């Protein structure tokens, strides 16, 4: 018997299809970007910063060139929002509003080049509040960094690179004191950049790389 149209597997039953949306600088990304996203994960943690990972196809087979690693779309410092939910069931829920902090290219064997985009937001674990002073924000960031390092069986002495973004040059001395408190005599590659951050109340952002 010929069937002229597709029939549902279970008639009159709902199906819940996971759905997500990524906004960069407040603008939803089009299907040309969404179709390249291979996976999206969000981590809601009561002891650490909330975080996200987006793995995206970075290879244009037709042009034989990288799609995103050489563009500015996912540059560190860009404001990003991650919305998740179920397609067609209800409004999507904003899971995280933060800042892209790093790009990690990957070249898997037998598969297209991918780009992992990671970020941490600057709020306390309640996701809504943050300390007011530079020193308090800095302490929170370095303590969370220590927690992340310990989870990977590392410590501050395993840091090979630390990049700090300051909201104003007046924080330079306090930043140096804070860094020396946690690094002691350890001397990884250090970079300090003065720039406008995502939110006016943010005083600093720290990006770090460790190896062991």
Distance between the terminal alpha carbons, to the nearest Å? 64 Å
- Biggest β-sheet description: 7 strands, antiparallel
Estimated radius of gyration: 21 Å
Question: Which range does the strand content fall in?
Answer: 35-45%
Structural class: alpha+beta
What is the total domain count? 2
Order of helices and strands: EEHEEEEEEEHEHEE
How many extended strands?
A: 12
Low-confidence stretches: none
The first-level CATH class name of the largest domain = Mainly Beta
Number of helices: 3
Give the structure's gist in a few sentences:
By secondary structure, the protein is an alpha+beta fold. Helices cover 16% and strands 36% of the residues.
Key features of this structure:
212 residues, alpha+beta, Phage tail proteins - horseshoe like beta roll fold, 60s Ribosomal Protein L30, Chain: A, 2 domains, seven-stranded antiparallel sheet, three-stranded mixed sheet, globular
Describe the structure.
- With 212 residues, the protein is of the alpha+beta class.
- Helix content is 16%, strand content 36%.
- The longest helix is centred in the C-terminal third of the chain and has 18 residues.
- The termini are far apart.
- The mean pLDDT is 77.
């Amino acid at each position: 018997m010929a069937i002229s149209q597709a029939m549902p597997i279970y008639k009159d039953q709902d199906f819940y299809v996971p759905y997500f949306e990524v906004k960069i600088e407040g603008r939803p990304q089009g299907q040309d970007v969404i179709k390249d996203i291979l996976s999206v994960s969000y981590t809601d943690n009561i002891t650490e910063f909330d975080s996200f990972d987006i793995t995206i196809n970075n290879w244009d087979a037709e042009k034989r060139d990288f799609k995103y690693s050489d563009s500015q779309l996912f540059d560190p410092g860009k404001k990003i929002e991650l919305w998740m939910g179920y397609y067609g069931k209800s409004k999507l829920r904003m899971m995280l509003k933060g800042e892209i902090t790093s790009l990690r290219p990957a070249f898997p064997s037998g598969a297209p080049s991918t780009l992992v985009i990671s970020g941490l937001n600057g709020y306390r674990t309640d996701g809504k509040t943050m300390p007011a002073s530079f020193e308090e924000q800095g302490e929170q960031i370095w303590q969370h960094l220590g927690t992340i390092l310990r989870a990977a069986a590392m410590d501050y002495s395993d840091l090979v690179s630390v990049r700090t973004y300051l909201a104003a040059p007046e924080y330079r001395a306090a930043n140096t004191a804070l860094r020396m408190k946690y690094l002691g005599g350890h001397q990884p590659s250090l970079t300090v950049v003065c720039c406008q951050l995502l939110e006016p109340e943010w005083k600093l952002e720290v990006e770090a790389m460790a190896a062991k």
